[in-house]
Amino acid sequence: MAKPIEWQLSTPQESKDHIPSNEQYEPTFGKYRHAIGPSRHFPRVMDCAALHRRTTTPTHNNKIKQRTTMKTMTIPTRDQVSPDNQGIFDNWTKNLGMTPNLYAAYANSKTALGTYLAFQNSSKGALNNKEREAINLVVSRSNGCRYCQSAHTVPGGMNGFSPEQILDLRAGHSEDAKLNALVAFAKEVMETKGRVSERTRDAFFAAGDDQGHVADTLMAIGDKIISNYLHNFGQFAIDFPVAVELEEATA
Questions:
Q1: Above 50 in pLDDT, residue 93?
Q2: pTM of the model
Q3: Does pLDDT of 48 surpass 60?
Q4: DSSP string of 56-115?
Q5: Within a 10 A sphere around the Cβ of 221, how many other Cβ atoms?
Q6: Confidence of residue 97 (pLDDT cuts 50, 70, 90)
Q7: What CATH class has 127-250?
Q8: How confident is the model at residue 244 (pLDDT cuts 50, 70, 90)?
Q9: How far apart are CA 165 and CA 133, in angstroms?
Q10: What pLDDT does 39 receive?
Q11: How far apart are CA 218 and CA 181, in angstroms?
């Protein structure tokens, strides 16, 4: 069996303006060149100079500039969204008096808003409202989403948390032992991408949670990550009382 092709790349002189030449990408077949066959099957030269020119043309750079100059996502009005989304807007207006900007941002898509709400409503599992709000607060703080930290401060208070307790939950701890184990677990899931330490895992189970609660907690985390990322990207206006920065509150 023929030995795999080895590619040798010469080291150019240090220069910020250096454009790689084709000769630097000459493949070396060594003593097995005869086993590979005609060179037309394995092009000897990659046209790297041409590739460099194609990816650094003014048109290409202008497109990048256009993509990076968008500051906020558009928040559509009811008249600008699909009929299905209009029905959802009507329900929000009836129950809350408005459609929050976060949900309106989802409605830029014909299907994303309904799909997200269906996922949110079906993923509650065995978590109670206080546990879900605790997760929402710590995950939103971990992702640096000011919108969701603000939006969940309101239902956090409605579910019995004091302002001081809400700040604690955002920081990843609680005076309640069970909630403390939950938010510490959620915070470490965010920080380690799910690779929590044995100590945190043991504390979670010692607090009375089981493997079903692990799955429910991860579903709640996933739910909140989606909205956190939408606002982190979109940077649209926060239409709730803006939550104080945690650092300012504890200074």
A1: yes
A2: 0.70
A3: no
A4: TSHHHHHHHHHHHT--S-----GGGS-HHHHHHHHHHHHHHSS--HHHHHHTTSSSHHHH
A5: 20
A6: very high
A7: mainly alpha
A8: confident
A9: 12
A10: 41
A11: 14
Structure tokens at 40: 């037309």
Report the alpha-carbon distance of residue 89 to residue 143 in Å, rounded. 27
Of 206, 168, 170, 200, which Cα lies nearest the Cα of 185?
A: 200
The C-alpha atoms of residue 228 and residue 161 are separated, in whole angstroms, by 22
Strand 27-28 relative to strand 6-7: parallel, antiparallel, unpaired? antiparallel
Domain boundaries, the chain: 127-250
Residue 242: pLDDT over 60: yes
Mean pLDDT to the nearest integer, 206-234: 96
**Residue 191 tokens, joined:** 């920080």
Dihedral angle at the C-alpha atoms of 107, 109, 115, 118, nearest 10 degrees? Answer: 0
Q: Closest Cα to residue 172, out of 200, 134, 229, 130?
A: 134
